[in-house]
């Protein structure tokens, strides 16, 4: 009987799983082939909130916190439920634990706090903040970033992470937001590259990468944005972007598109909207584009 059963098990081509009984059934013979072990949770949920409250897995590890998010925090409501003596002892132990933990990671905590605040102000996605936090962690571990230099390292980390993840942010917009000195930030960049083994595979940004940011800041119409993309693609095909600032080229396309569609954004308005940027750079790139693409603009 056992030989016949094993033969049917091998020859069965069509099966169905009965998850309520935990059985794998052959559709051809109706025989139970094997049992199924359910490795999922023992509860059911009907909303994402219920799933989060019942789940026993914590948040994923992150470089944005000095302890990678592994520290367990006890809520004040749970502490208040304890008897008076135990509550007082628990609060004292909690205070000492926090003091010891912070003394060991004081610079790391401060650096990550600045980084998270500035990333939030710049509207950077989580992947950029995670990468920048990784750079900061390596910097602090090497004993760098003391005193005022910490802001320079934060600015350098954020800008390099933006370049790596191809998120369009200008160098000057980052250092102005962080409030760091330009020379110190460039020095910090060199040190981070040195820490990373002398190589960071940053992706080269193109003029079209800056178009959404520019159109949003200037409030340009959809037709102007479409023309900017067409101009940016033409610039890339003709290799006009080699050795040129991609944001200056994108700003020049914004000036051309706004002039053609009568939205009247002058070069100074565009330069001031982009931060520490000169209208001279926009003017030079504008002349190159209209000359090489044979565009006629009525100003």
Written description of the protein model:
The protein has 299 residues and is mainly alpha-helical. The protein has three domains: 1-57, N-terminal domain of TfIIb; 64-203, Cyclin-like (Cyclin A, domain 1), CATH 1.10.472.10; 207-292, Cyclin-like (Cyclin A, domain 1), CATH 1.10.472. The protein is built from 14 helices and three strands. It has a three-stranded antiparallel beta sheet with strand order 1-2-3. A hairpin with a 4-residue loop joins strand 1 and strand 2 (23-26). The chain is extended. The N and C termini lie far apart (94 Å). 26% of the residues are buried. The model is unreliable at 1-10 (pLDDT under 50). Pfam families: TFIIB. This is Cyclin-like domain-containing protein. Keywords: Transcription, Transcription regulation. GO terms for molecular function: TBP-class protein binding.
- The portion of residues assigned to helices is 55-70%
CATH top-level class of the largest domain: Mainly Alpha
Query: Which class do the helix and strand fractions yield?
Result: mainly alpha
- Uncertain parts: 1-10
The neighbouring-strand order within the major sheet is: 1-2-3
Strand content: under 5%
CATH-assigned homologous superfamily of the largest domain: Cyclin-like
Helix/strand order, N-terminal first: HEEEHHHHHHHHHHHHH
The 3D shape can be described as extended
| Number of domain units | 3
Judging by the overall fold, what is the CATH architecture of the largest domain? Orthogonal Bundle
Question: Could you tell me the number of beta strands?
Answer: 3
Give the CATH topology of the largest domain.
Cyclin A, domain 1
Organism: Fervidicoccus fontis
GO cellular component, one term: transcription preinitiation complex
Domain Cyclin-like: 113-194, 209-291
Protein name: Cyclin-like domain-containing protein
């Amino acid at each position: 009987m056992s030989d016949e059963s094993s033969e049917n098990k091998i020859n069965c081509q069509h099966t169905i799983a009965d998850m309520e009984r935990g059985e794998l059934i052959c559709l051809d013979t109706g025989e139970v082939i094997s049992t199924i072990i359910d490795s999922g949770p023992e509860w059911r949920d009907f909303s994402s909130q219920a799933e989060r409250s019942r789940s026993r897995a914590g948040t994923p590890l992150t470089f944005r916190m000095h302890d990678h998010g592994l520290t367990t925090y006890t809520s004040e409501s749970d502490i208040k439920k304890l008897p008076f003596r135990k509550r007082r002892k628990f609060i004292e132990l909690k205070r000492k634990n926090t003091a010891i933990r912070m003394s060991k990671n004081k610079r790391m905590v401060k650096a990550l706090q600045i980084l998270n605040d500035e990333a939030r102000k710049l509207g950077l996605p989580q992947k950029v903040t995670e990468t920048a936090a990784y750079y900061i962690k390596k910097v602090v571990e090497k004993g760098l970033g003391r005193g005022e230099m910490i802001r320079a390292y934060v600015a350098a980390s954020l800008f390099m992470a933006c370049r790596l993840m191809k998120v369009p942010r200008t160098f000057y917009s980052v250092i102005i937001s962080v409030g760091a000195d330009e020379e110190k930030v460039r020095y910090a960049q060199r040190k981070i590259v040195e820490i990373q083994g002398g190589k960071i595979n940053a992706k080269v940004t193109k003029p079209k990468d800056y178009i959404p940011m520019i159109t949003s800041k200037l409030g340009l119409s959809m037709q102007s944005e479409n023309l900017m993309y067409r101009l940016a693609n033409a610039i890339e095909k003709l290799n006009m972007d080699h050795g040129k600032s991609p944001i200056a080229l994108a700003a020049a396309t914004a000036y051309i598109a706004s002039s053609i569609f009568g939205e009247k954004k002058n070069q100074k308005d565009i330069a001031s909207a982009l931060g520490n940027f000169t209208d001279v750079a926009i003017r030079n790139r504008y002349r190159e584009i209209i000359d090489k693409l044979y565009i006629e603009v009525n100003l």
